[in-house]
Amino acid sequence: MAEMTPYQEDIRQLYARGLNLDALQGHSLLVAGATGLVGACVVDIVMADPHRNLQVFAAGRNRRRAEERFAAYADDPRFSFVEMDVTQPVMDEKPYDYIIDAASNASPNFFKQQPVEVIKANIDGVAHLLDYGRQHGLRKMVYVSSGEIYGQGDGHAFTETSSGYVDCATPRACYPSSKRAAETLCIAYATEYATPVTIARLCHTYGPGFTESDNRVFAQFFRNVLRGEDIVLKSRGEQYRSWLYVVDSAHALLHLLLHGESAQAYNVADATGNITIRQLAEQVAAWAKRKVVFDIPATADQGNTTPVTRATFDTSKIEHTGWKPLFDISTGLSHSLETLKSQ
């Protein structure tokens, strides 16, 4: 039997520290966007439940990627891959009791190259999944939104009622604007049709399960040091962000599935993980004994880069439901890198 990676050990620790999914037993869970960073981690956590009696459906568009990512579950009768594009109506007749909708590209290269598809995945995806849920007795859905909906703030930590400026007349706005609209759509379904849906606003999430096309900064930094390279920053890296380990992010989604109120949004973040892009690069480089160097062009193209300089989150609302992060940023980064190195 292969030795467990630090990532797998961290998932096991969730159960050792009290994670209980008994309320889901005997039911079915659909994870849309299951091959993405967060969706795949949700699948891994549920499949690791030592008392699991839950049918897990991992939905995505890329069967090859799913077969590779979930090879460990290929012979498990309680796991199934469902080929699904959420921009199209759900034609399946399987009774999905619970849904976690993580089907959205969060990588900035898609914001520049495929802004239409980004918008459709968020808005049409929510509508199609909730329509399906209404017709098939949905017990609960969690929509995975983003702290980017807050736009440009005033320097204070975002609460769930914060609302900052987003320039909607830019291609880059495809992501925050469609996330905002999708959230409103969730609230509309909950209000008009009593559809049970909760919104999770994730901060910047990192971990070892990113895809080959992911060009978020953490993924680029990880690739650099694992190839034995220094990290080259094209800016001063002064943007200040909340960062959260993917195991904590996925844990929060499952917690909200069980304990979040319908028609409510919750920030998901870790106040101890608030650092600049430069500090993130320095921590990753230090792990690999590499350096951070600067190569700042005279004129930088900001077309697919968020203009938000500071994005931190007030997490008191979700903490009142009993959730808190279990892994600090130093642990999360080192466990991510150790897992990737072992693979």
From TrEMBL:
Residues 30-269 form the NAD-dependent epimerase/dehydratase domain. This is NAD-dependent epimerase/dehydratase family protein. Keywords: Decarboxylase, Lyase, NAD. PANTHER family: UDP-GLUCURONATE DECARBOXYLASE (PTHR43078:SF7), UDP-GLUCURONIC ACID DECARBOXYLASE-RELATED (PTHR43078). GO terms for molecular function: NAD+ binding; UDP-glucuronate decarboxylase activity. It holds the Pfam family Epimerase. One of its GO terms (cellular component) is cytoplasm. InterPro entries: Epimerase_deHydtase (IPR001509), NAD(P)-bd_dom_sf (IPR036291), UXS-like (IPR044516). The keyword ATP-binding does not apply. One of its GO terms (biological process) is D-xylose metabolic process. Its cofactor is NAD(+).
